[in-house]
Amino acid sequence: MRPWQSDFEDARDLEFSLTLKASPGLTSPMSGLLTSFACLPGSQLGSGSVALNVDGNQIVGLATSLPLWRDIAAGTRGEDVSALEAELARLGTTAIVDGKWGRADAVAYGAMRKAAGATPTGDIVHVTDVVWLPDSVVSFASCDAATGIRVTAGDPLAQMPAAVQSMVPTAKPEGTTAGPRIIRIGTEHFDLASEEAVTDPAILAAVSASSEFAEMQSTDGATSLRYESSLRDPIRVTIVPPSAVYAVAGNAGCVQSKGQIHRVTLIASQLGQALIITETPGLEIIDLSPDQKKGCL
Asked: Can you give the pTM of this predicted structure?
């Protein structure tokens, strides 16, 4: 028979046990009348977007690694300055991440506010013009305030669902093909660096924002999820009937082509077919009923 070839990804579902962390709620940075707050359970807010208006002041959400706690003006230095510069740079502005607030940073901050549809506030970053977000994109689990009510600085405005702190595969499925793997979450895929705890912030953020995670949270006591995993680099395999492979020991065996013996590596069995890699490339004919008396090299 003439065998055919295919790219084998070894796609399979992996179950992960999740460790969750509580997410802080969204709080008002200033007192006044809430003149705009478009919060709905399940809705999302991204860093660099207008989160709410208080007394007409447009307050932008920013996912800085350190919450802002003071006004920042020209010459201000500190870790909070570095955190703000880093987030502005991540959002695509020309901020210089050096821990010292300068003219270029002020221009970058103004550009960010303009891109968000908010009015630039000059060279000073007022702490009342920014609300802290724990992640670049957050979801609202519930809303504690609405347009038209009076709030005091520090009042809770919305609650966020718990986020994923780490995730560990519960077990490696039997027959998993060795090799670097990727995990698919929604429309994205990520490299799985190891078979142990997953702590990559990008993967954890994607899981926290996934529909599977939202569904899991609605189920009492659920702490595990399944996502599809596959080989990062598909393997080119030859597909033959199982009867063509003989003298199998572990994942090694032999096939015959026109009576000639060729060693092969058995990669997997799928849909009643054997997936093999031949040590001799380009075999055009595989004997369906090999003469096993010839042995295996």
From this structure: 0.60
